[in-house]
Amino acid sequence: MPRFKFQLEGVLEHRKNIEEEKQRALAMVFAEMQRLKIELSDLDQVARGAVADLRQNRLTGPLDMSFLAAHRRFTGSVQRKALAIAQKMALVQRQIEEARANLAEAAKQRKIIEKLRERQLERWQSQQHRQEMDELDDIGMQLAFRQLGESQLNEAATKGQS
């Protein structure tokens, strides 16, 4: 039996590879976002720890103004770092949206070729079925003619014997 051969199989494989590449790119951007979230969380923990230390240990008894000024500079620095991380996260979020759109487009292009393959396969199967039916009809006709010929020969032989 003949086998179905899709002429655009190479294109389909290429589109699958592109889609996988876009999935990897999206995963990398997600990983970057996760890294930034962890970094921001760590920075938040450091800031909370510094404030808790200040409240528990440094605000009782005589106040050390140089320590308080250093603490204020430290918290300002932490806030600037947090703001920078938040800006990076906004940029990465835009990259995520772009990567998702690219992945959706790649999936769409792959599905177009897959749909074309399915349609061609259906047409090929239908054609194969028609050819098989035509061959069966031919065989049936040959058998019918053979049986008709044999019955006419038998009739002629029986008439010839009588």
Description:
There is one protein chain. With 162 residues, the protein is an all-alpha fold. It has a single domain, classed as Orthogonal Bundle (Helix Hairpins). Helix content is 91%, strand content 0%. It has two helices and no strands. The protein has helices at residues 9-58, 65-161. Helix 1 (9-58) packs antiparallel against helix 2 (65-161). It is rod-shaped, with a radius of gyration of 40 Å. The protein starts with 8 loop residues before the first helix and ends with a helix. 4% of the residues are buried. The mean pLDDT is 92.
Primary descriptors:
Helix Hairpins; mainly alpha; 162 residues
Q: For this entry, what is the oligomeric state of its chains? A: single chain
CATH fold-level topology: Helix Hairpins
- The number of distinct helices, counting runs of at least 4 residues, comes to 2
Main sheet properties: none
Nearest-integer average pLDDT: 92
Cα(first) to Cα(last) distance is 51 Å
In N-to-C order, the SSE pattern is HH
Low-confidence stretches: none
| General form | rod-shaped
Radius of gyration: 40 Å
Which CATH top level class fits?
Mainly Alpha
Please give the number of β-strands: 0
